[in-house]
Amino acid sequence: EIVMTQSPATSSVSPGERVTLSCRASQSVNTKLAWYQQKPGQAPRLLIYDASTRATGIPARFSGSGSGTEFTLTITSLQSEDSAVYYCQQYNKWPPYTFGQGTKLEIK
Amino acid sequence: DVQLVESGGGLVQPGGSLRLSCAASGFTFTNYAMSWVRQGPGKGLEWVSAVSGSGGSSYSADSVKGRFTISKDISTNTLYLQMNSLRAEDTAVYYCAKMGGWYEPIDYWGQGIPVTVSS
After folding, report:
1. Cβ of A96 and B47 within 8 Å?
2. Which residue among A43, A49, A98 sits closest to B105, beta carbon to beta carbon?
3. What's the mean pLDDT in B105-110?
4. What pLDDT is attached to residue B100?
5. With helix as H, strand as E and coil as C, how does chain B read?
6. Which residue stretches of chain A have pLDDT < 70?
7. In this complex, do A89 and B62 lie within 8 Å of one another by their Cβ atoms?
């Protein structure tokens, strides 16, 4: 089973700033990596797939990069609405599909 | 628009059974794999089971293998999760999810349905 590890567990950033969230896989997942955003009481929403492709309707402030075992999600010009938990997920080697434990992003 | 609407959740005693349903619309049901993903109270996301577009192939996490069965009714565009021998640790919100394919991410999620296993 591929273990996904996200860091940091929590990040607190001011509006307008930039934040980078990290995701590490225990073995290579090539670029089969997605990022999801989940706000309280809501279902997750796909942000990024194939490591760097934005999903439909996702603003350009969200960008993803990486391959193999190291990935990042960068959000620029942070807004209050970006406050959420962000999860990475690999879909290269399954079953099981595996998620990271999540990074909680707080906007000060 | 893609819509996924779960039903069938609720309170069940340990050792009991429950069947979750997910009514799908807005896409060709037989063309896409589907998954169930759960989220325990205050916890992260855990993939549970997945089934192919045709319903002919399925996979499950070790934590539910032998107890949960995923299936599709292509005549009614409905996804199911039959859950038997339920345990307290199965308590979670269960999400129905559409995938592009086996090597693709989840692109749509249902709103989730809570399942509580408790005496």
Report:
1. yes
2. A49
3. 97
4. 87
5. CCEEEEECCEEECCCCCEEEEEEEECCCHHHCCEEEEEECCCCCEEEEEEECCCCCCEEECCCCCCCEEEEEECCCCEEEEEECCCCHHHCEEEEEEEECCCCCCEEEECCCEEEEECC
6. none
7. no
For A47, the closest chain B residue by CA position comes to B107
- How near does any CA of chain A get to the CA of B17, in Å? 23
Instruction: Identify all chain A residues contacting B35, using CB atoms and an 8 Å cutoff.
Output: 97
Closest CA to B106 of A25, A4, A44: A44
CB contact under 8 A, A97 and B46: no
The pLDDT value given to residue B106: 97
B84 residue type, one letter: N
Residue B99, token pair as written in the block: 């995938």
